Amino acid sequence: MIRGNGFILRPLRISDSGGYWETMQDKETIKGLMSVPYSFEKAKKEIKEDIKEMKEKGSEYFTIVVKGKYAGYVVLQYQNWDRKSSEGRMHICIHPDFRGKGLATKVWKEILKYGFSKKKLEKVFAQCKASNKAMIKVIKNCGFKKVKTHKVEGIKKILWVKKK
Q1: d(CA 18, CA 15)
Q2: CATH number of the domain within which 99 lies
Q3: Which domain, by its residues, includes 27?
Q4: What's the maximum distance between 2 C-alpha atoms anywhere in the chain?
Q5: For residues 2 and 9, what is the distance between their CA atoms, to the nearest angstrom?
Q6: 15: Cβ–Cβ under 8 A, 6 or more apart, which residues?
Q7: Which among 6, 8, 59, 98 counts the fewest CB atoms within 10 Å?
Q8: Rounded-to-integer distance, Cα 57 and Cα 37, Å
Q9: What predicted TM-score, i.e. pTM, was given to this entire model?
Q10: What proportion of the chain, given as a percentage, has pLDDT over 70?
Q11: pLDDT at 32 (0 to 100)
Q12: 19 located within any domain
């Protein structure tokens, strides 16, 4: 568990399925992601797969909790799921009720500290759609530098890196 300024990060649980499902049904979330679950059962299945990935590949999925409520999730993974790698990658998704309050920036800064100190990462990558202005702002506020703009499955994306 990681305690931040106004939030707690704890390991993902099956009981987070409801908050996850709500977040995945939001129009802004849908615009920012490549795909979202089409049913609550599919959302629950994704959570189960993420928990399995945590055990098998060393990925860390944290639920963001604010005042006892599901506020989103953040993921820290080794690059290419290689536990020996000194490189990682991050993902985040904030529940609509908690957006626009600086939460994503605070959470990412905390996860970066965790990744550089506890995981001994030297570099962390992030990627977002080029159209996702809010995420670009978070990434820049966390000190990431643009690596390149490219297309993934026909969608324009930006790859970023932050070095220790």
Answers
A1: 7
A2: 3.40.630.30
A3: 2-122
A4: 39
A5: 5
A6: none
A7: 6
A8: 22
A9: 0.87
A10: 96
A11: 65
A12: yes
